[in-house]
Amino acid sequence: MSETLKLAAEMREKAGKGASRAVRRTGRVPAVIYGAGQPATPIHVEEKLLVRQLSSGHFMNSVVELDLGGQVVRTLPRDVQFHVVSDRPIHVDFLRIDAGSTVTVAVPVRFVDEDKSPGMKRGAVVNIVRHEVQVDCAPDSIPGELVISLAGRDVGDSIHISAVTLPAGVVPHIHDRDFTIATIVAPSALKSETGDEAATPAA
Questions:
Q1: Read out DSSP for 63-125?
Q2: What is the mean pLDDT for each group of 10 consecutive residues in the chain (203 residues)?
Q3: Taken in order 188, 194, 200, 203, is the CA torsion positive or negative?
Q4: Complete edge-to-edge strand list for the sheet that includes strand 158-160
Q5: CA torsion angle for 122, 187, 156, 128 (degrees, to 10)?
């Protein structure tokens, strides 16, 4: 399951662009907590700690526990805005989550067992259609990644969501079709070789 992250936060007394700029000058990032039928709560977090968690690669699909002066609020990051020039984070939206709630998250996929794929042994490559798959699950059941085996896969095979074993309690957000996650395709050299063979008349 995805790791639960912890982040200290403080209340923001003032809103508006001017107040947000003042917060950023102190090394903090303005943010807001919303959802669960409660009023939006303006806060700010330390930029260095936020950047460290963003660099983990799984910030957007992890539960983040915000510590507001001893009061812990369980949230899920929903949006991070970055400065167009410096690429520094300038605002974060956190969705408040309750026990028993269901969330939709994008989970990265990872492929294994390349050495057990006939196609890969012949030089084929994995054409990834979806690097992430949206799933619905409880906040405490968010998978860190979806591991997909390439064992037995040959050139021309397609890997659909129905072929992926999801953890208990996790279901695809798109449920009305068996969408493709990846295909096994031949490299140009193999395609050329196959084409030459097809073009050579039989003796």
A1: -EEEEETTEEEEEEEEEEEE-TTT--EEEEEEEE--TT--EEEEEEEEEE-GGG-HHHHTT-E
A2: 87 81 92 92 96 91 93 95 95 91 93 95 94 94 93 96 93 96 82 50 45
A3: positive
A4: 125-128, 180-185, 158-160
A5: 110
CATH number where 23 lies = 2.40.240.10
Cα separation, 86 vs 23, in Å, equals 17
Domain that residue 162 falls in: 103-197
Query: Nearest 5°: phi and psi at 198?
Result: -70, -30
Secondary structure (DSSP) of 91-106: EEEEEE--TT--EEEE
Q: To which H or E segment does residue 51 belong?
A: helix 47-54
The CATH number given to whatever domain includes residue 136 is 2.170.120.20
Task: Tell me if 59 sits within 8 A of 89, measured CB to CB.
Answer: no
